[in-house]
């Protein structure tokens, strides 16, 4: 019979695995296919996360290290490295959004005469 403490540790392990696999997969998906949005972006992130979890398990099993603690540690390290290496800053504009901003500095507040909005820039959301 599984006790409450062991159940909670297992649930915490599973939550950490999912969170870090998702972080790494989201960063990789944004780098590989930045044009995907909405449901297709979430689906491709989920597929990458599941593939990453399986690959790590297979690699650890190949060398005989497949156990709960090494598996969790490797997934956390790889997920964090992918997020920090590929994901960039948190809360900043994406590369596509940053390319649409004006090249002027923030301290220069005087308007340019005749400046028109870009045709690729849509209405504010």
Question: Can you describe this structure?
Answer:
It is a single chain. The protein is elongated. The mean pLDDT is 83. The protein is mostly helical and 125 residues long.
Q: In angstroms, what is the radius of gyration?
A: 21 Å
Structural class: mainly alpha
Distance between the termini: 53 Å
The percentage helix is 55-70%
Overall mean pLDDT: 83
Supply the number of helical segments: 4
Overall, the morphology is: elongated
Binned strand content:
under 5%
* Number of β-strand runs: 0
Instruction: Give the uncertain stretches in residue-range form.
Output: none
Describe the sheet with the most strands. Answer: none
User: What sequence of helices (H) and strands (E) makes up the elements?
Assistant: HHHH
Supply the key terms:
mainly alpha, 4 helices, 62% helix, 125 residues
What is the gist of this entry?
This protein has 125 residues and is mainly alpha-helical.
What is the element layout, followed by pairings?
Elements (H helix, E strand, L loop, with lengths): L3 H29 L5 H25 L5 H19 L8 H4 L27
């Amino acid at each position: 019979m599984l006790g409450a403490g062991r159940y909670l540790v297992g649930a915490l392990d599973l939550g950490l695995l999912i969170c870090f696999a998702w972080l790494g997969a989201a960063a990789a998906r944004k780098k590989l296919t930045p044009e995907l949005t909405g449901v297709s972006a979430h689906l491709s992130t989920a597929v990458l996360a599941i593939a990453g979890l399986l690959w790590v398990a297979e690699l650890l099993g190949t060398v005989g290290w497949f156990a709960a603690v090494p598996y969790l540690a490797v997934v956390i390290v790889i997920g964090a490295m992918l997020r920090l290496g590929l994901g960039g800053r948190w809360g900043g504009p994406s590369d596509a959004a940053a390319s649409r901003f004006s090249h002027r500095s923030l301290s220069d507040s005087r308007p340019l005469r005749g400046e028109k909005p870009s045709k690729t820039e849509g209405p504010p959301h």
